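Researcher: Last one for today. Full complex below.
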Amino acid sequence: MVLAAVSADLTALAAAVRTGRLSAVDLVERCLERIRATEERLRAFIHVDVEGAREAARQRDAEARRGQIRGPLHGIPLAVKDLFDQAGLPTTAGAAIRRGHRAKTTATAVQRLLDAGAVVIGKTNLHEFAFGVTSVNPHFGAVANPWDPERVAGGSSGGSAAAVAVGCCAAALGTDTGGSVRIPAALCGVVGLKPTFGRVSRHGVVPLAWSFDTVGPLARSVADAALLLSVLAGPDPQDPLTGRSAPFGPQVPPAPPSFRIGRLRGPLFDEGLDVEVGTALERACTLLARAGGRVEEVGVEAALAGQAAQTTILFAEASTYHRRAYPGRLAEYGPDVRELLAAGATIPATAYVDAQRVQGVVIRQTRRLLADFDALICAAVPVQAPLIEEVDPARGEGWRRARAPLSRLTRLFNLTGLPAVAVPVGRARSGLPLGVQLAAAPGEEARLLAIAAVLEAAAGWTLPALP
Amino acid sequence: MERMLEEMVRDLLGAAPDDQTLRAVEGWRRAWRREWERVESFDLGDEDLPAPLWCWPP
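Model: Here's the assembly. Have a good evening.
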């Protein structure tokens, strides 16, 4: 059996490479070996850049021997969702339509990782065009959950989550438009961070819906997610939304001795909650209270209307993009994405504008809440990971029933642009991991991750070595 | 209704949807309209501007 290539946090790995105790070449070879051992079962990668990663690792080792350290990720093998351009490599976006694509330039987020010394080991599998939450991909295979390969890894960044969970890489890059970082993170037992909308550049990323697309890391721990955000965040002239993006420190600051947590209640947050997910959420609230948090129940009056608004904006924008990008090629998409794109094309302009008005109302309501609370908490995903065969569009209608529950609790934070993080807190009787979700005010990732680290430590969660 | 939807999808996506997709779009539209009722019944006032005009990006 080939064990996980990575079982240490990013800071420890980088220190080992920097001081010569560990070579980047060895680390990359272990990752490649781990990928070979798990790929048939997991289908987490669309493209493994064997030669590119080896060459980059040799360069990082040579630089380290000369004392030239590029940055905090020097020699660290990372994976990137196959939605990001990296010059010379394919960006399929998980779509048959883009099989022949080769990127000429590199996405800003990927370039920032490379500038910090990272080695990109490959491009990860995803839901086709990131328009779905299962990563059951008709063209590149269904990403399997490392905890139970019969079940989905979640999506759309399913390959990134599975690759991190099973130790094929130290961390990975994903995107989140309706929960696509946090859903697979929660289902695979890793940490998934969606930063504040506009904090990380989206230049060079295939869009899904411009109003919500957000780049974020998937990592083994909250500390790793914070380190990655410190590399990723910042202004980029090629993405005007990042103009006000403040730098982020590499370390998670200590949580204040006392802090206020708003536990979200109401039909959106309480209905349809799996019993064990509910128990995990209760336990998380208790742990936070013991660690100095004051937990109070709160509601967002317009939360349900906000769900409809988020669907409307996302679907209309996705259809708008695909109409121009791939005109007349509807038949080449998988059946679920084909149907969703066709459906989005029927949304009236008046509904799109009204949805943006509701978005404003929901933002106002959450801002009011966050004036009194340091963070909000709810479950990350209300259900446990479904079976692949139940949600495979090629095998029936089950994907329709699975779609809404999987993204039910994540979309509010895309509508409001708030930073949100999925944190694993335990396991269900089935053995599958269970996660909760914390969110904070815009730009308050430091506070958010400080509280998330408190919860992570109190829950005693560490990613185990999976087979 | 079916013909109108077919034209709408064809005009907007530049491709005629197959029958199965068309039936699915009809089903999706019905579900979306039920969800949309929550917005229709929501008390939006004159002061409720679209988010991009005043608070977006956050």
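The helical segments of chain B are 2-13, 19-40. The mean pLDDT of chain B is 83.
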